[in-house]
Amino acid sequence: MKRVSLTQYLVEEQRLHSNIPASLRLLIEVVARACKTISHSVGKGALGDILGSANTENIQGEVQKKLDVISNEILLEANEWGGHLAAMASEEMESIHPIPNRYPMGEYMLLFDPLDGSSNIDVNVSIGTIFSVLKAPEGMTQPTEADFMQAGSQQVAAGYAVYGPQTMLVLTTGNGVNCFTLDREMGSWVLTQKDMQIPEETKEFAINMSNQRHWHPPVTRYVDEMLAGKTGPRGKDFNMRWIASMVADVHRILNRGGIFMYPADQRDPSQPGKLRLMYEANPMAFIVEQAGGAATDGRQRILDIAPQKLHQRVPVFLGSKSEVERVTSYHQE
Ligand code: AHG
Ligand code: MN
Ligand code: MN
Ligand code: MN
C-alpha cells in the first residue's frame, strides 16, 4: 500500500480544493511536529520526569500537572517563529500570547488545549492535544483578546492528537475529517483513515454519571430513557463509556458512534458546564460536524455561539446526529 504523509495530503488537498494555502499548511505541520514532541515526552513517563503536579494553578483554578505546562511550552516554542501566526491562546495561559516582535507576524491565530485529560496523565490512560485555527481580522496590527472572539464556524482548521496505544492526529480543514498515525520509527504522520464518518445510529453514551443528582431535567430524562433499556421508550439496551479525556471519548465516537455529554448543571449558574468553548468545544464541534455528526450546547449549534470570553465554558452534547438532535429537542420542550 502506498503511504501518504501529512505533507503530501495537505499539498494534494490544496491542489484539488484550494482550501489550504501554503502558510496554513506550514502552520498545521508545525502543530503536528509539536504534538510529536509531546507524544515523545508522554511516552517517557516516569523516565522523563514529566509526571506529577507542577504545584501551580491555571486561570480556571485547576492545579496544573507538569505535563500541562511542558506541553504548553512545546506548542508556544514550536509556533512562535514560523511567521504564520499573529497570536496564540491556551487553556494554560490567562491572556493571549502575541507573537514577539523579533518574529514576523502572520495572518492566523492558534488556540489550544495543550494537554487534554490531565487527570489521566499519571495513570497511563490516553490523553491528547486539541487545537483550533482562526484567521486574524483584516487590518489587525496589535492582536487583542477581542480579535479571538469569533464563532466556531469561522475556524479554518481544527484537530486533535491522541496519545494512546498509538499516537494519532485527526484533522479537518473544512473538507471532511482525516486521521494520521504517527510512525514512531520514521517520525512521520501517515494517513490511515480517510473521510471519517460518525455512524448515525448508536447504543453508546458518555457522561460523568457522578454528577447525576445535579443535572437539569432534560438531561435526566434523556439518560433515564437510555438506562431503561429494551423495555423502555428507546427499545434497546445502551452501553456507557467515560474515559475522562475528551480527546479519547471523541476519538471513539468518530470511529464507532455514540454521544458525548458534559452538560451544565444546577450547581453554579455562572459555570455552564466544564469544557471551554474556544479550545475544546469549538474544535471538536467542527471535527464532529465535518464527520457527519452534530454538536450543540443543548439549545443551539456550538459553532454558532458568539464567544464573550477566552476561557468561557459551555455545555457540550456531541456525536451521532440523531442522538444529539434528540437530547437537544428535550431542552427545547
Ligand atoms: P483538561 O484536562 O484539559 O482540563 O480537560 C479535562 C476535561 C475533558 O478532557 C474531560 O472530558 C473532562 O474534563 C473530564 O471531567 P471529569 O473529571 O468531570 O470526568
Ligand atoms: Mn485543565
Ligand atoms: Mn481539556
Ligand atoms: Mn488541558
UniProtKB/TrEMBL annotation:
| Species of origin | Massilia pinisoli
Listed pathway(s): Carbohydrate biosynthesis
Q: Which gene encodes it?
A: fbp
Q: Which InterPro entries match?
A: FBPase_C_dom (IPR044015), FBPase_class-1 (IPR000146), FBPase_N (IPR033391), FBPtase (IPR028343)
Q: Which residues form the Fructose-1-6-bisphosphatase class I N-terminal domain?
A: 5-194
Q: What is its EC number?
A: 3.1.3.11
Per the record, the similarity remark reads:
Belongs to the FBPase class 1 family.
UniProt KW Magnesium keyword:
yes
- Superkingdom, taxonomy of origin: Bacteria
Q: Which UniProt keywords apply?
A: Carbohydrate metabolism, Cytoplasm, Hydrolase, Magnesium, Metal-binding
Top enzyme category: hydrolase
Name the cofactor(s).
Answer: Mg(2+)
Entry-linked CDD domains: FBPase
Q: Tell me what this protein is called.
A: Fructose-1,6-bisphosphatase class 1
Per UniProt, Mg(2+) 2 binds at D113, D116, E280
Q: Which note does the record give on the cofactor?
A: Binds 2 magnesium ions per subunit.
Mainly localized where? cytoplasm
Q: Can you say where in the cell this protein is located?
A: Cytoplasm
Positions with a binding annotation for substrate:
D116, G117, S118, S119, N208, K274
Which reaction does this chain catalyze?
Answer: beta-D-fructose 1,6-bisphosphate + H2O = beta-D-fructose 6-phosphate + phosphate
Residue positions annotated to bind Mg(2+) 1 are: E91, D113, L115
